[in-house]
Each structure stands twice: as C-alpha cells, then as structure tokens.
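pasting for the record
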Amino acid sequence: MGGYMERGIQTKEAPRTGIARMYRSLATLALLPSCFLAGCAGEKGVDAGSSSSAPYSSSETATPQPENNDSEKGIDIEKNSIYYSENGVREGFSAYCTARTYNGFPEMADCSVYLCDGDDTVRFTFDNVNFTEQTYGKREPGVSDLMSKTATLATDYRYYIPAETLKNTAECKEKKSNVGQFTKPVSFPYGENEQYLCLPQFSTTRDGRKMGMKVTKTTSVNEEDNNGPRYPLYTLDISEQCFNPITVD
C-alpha cells in the first residue's frame, strides 16, 4: 500500500515550530483577565461528528465553549475514534514500520500511519523511532510496537506531524460508515479552526490517568489557505477523552 499511496501525494512542509505555538499561547494570555473570565477567549464547542463520511467544512459555525477541555470540544469516543484494520483505510487506519537495517541501525525504524480525513487519505510519517526495547534490533517492528510508543510520539509530534495528503481517494469515499472521523470544527480567535480525532489503541498513563492518542487538525477559516504549505496542520497529544477501556486487554 505504501508505494501506491505515495504516488500523487501532496506533501506539506513543516509550517510551524514550537515557537509559533508559544506565540499563540502568549496571544491567548493577552486576552486575560477581562475576557477570559467571561468565557469569550476560550474555544467554541460543537456537537460530535455525524455518521456521514463527508468531511466537515472549516467554515461551519461553532457554538461558544466556555473552557478548554476535551469533553467540550465535541469529542465523542464512538463517532470520533479510528481503530487499526488490516484491511486498510476503508475499515480503519493502517500502519507500517520499516527497520533501518540498511544503514546499520536495525533497532530504529521509519513508520507511517494512513487514515481517512473525509474523502482524502492522509499519511503521517514518524521517522527514526527507537524500538530497542521492543525488538532489540532483531525483527521488524509491528503495529503493536508502534502503539507502545504513544507517550514518545505525543511528545515528539506535539507541534507538527509530517503529513501527506492524497485527495479524493476511492478508499476513503468507500469507507464503512462505522469508521470514525474528525469532530466538527472548534473555532479560535486567530482565524483558525481545530478538529479532533482519537486513536484509542495508542494509549498510555500519565499521573495515574489512562490516556488515548488525540490527533488535532488545524485549518484556516480562509478556505483558500487550506491547500497550501501551512494548512492543514496535524499535531499529536494524549487525552483522557480519547481513552477507551475496550482497547485494554
């Protein structure tokens, strides 16, 4: 699948760094205290995503949301979660890892995760993942090995995931109705929208709390900007809202 998916894929260059995220946080603080205490500087919440496979438009109207927490971002663990499938993106997400035996580092691997974002296939690339504790460099890492790296991935890709998009693919247009999708947009006062998607099989524990992987998609309110080098922007994080107990043996 990897070779097929790479043809015609549009590559997004790294649009931002951690410094950009810092500026955004500072801009939020600049609204304190007069506006924040009233709730107007927070995110704008929405209802959970529908069962339709069509992507949501970033121009959709979002309702006001008083605080920044996942339960009020419209995340529904049933509708906004995608699970691994050996049958490809029609039935979930797929993942592949290739050990770097060619350059003498068999414990390291380059991994890809494929999933549907509306009618588009998106590939996330995670290079140079260290699987020493999982494989000792003696075998090719599998999907379960990649899932065991949840905390590391959430840290390393909290500002930016290298992502490639293949537009209007048959696989995503034909995906099953029970395959999860991103939430409706949550609006921010910086000309951006955010949407969220859970990958519950990527799970970890933080401060005694069970967490699942959360993918955040940031787009511009200006639709023309969403096919350029800056948007869409995908990032990783972990969230209690994305943890599903059924994924734990």
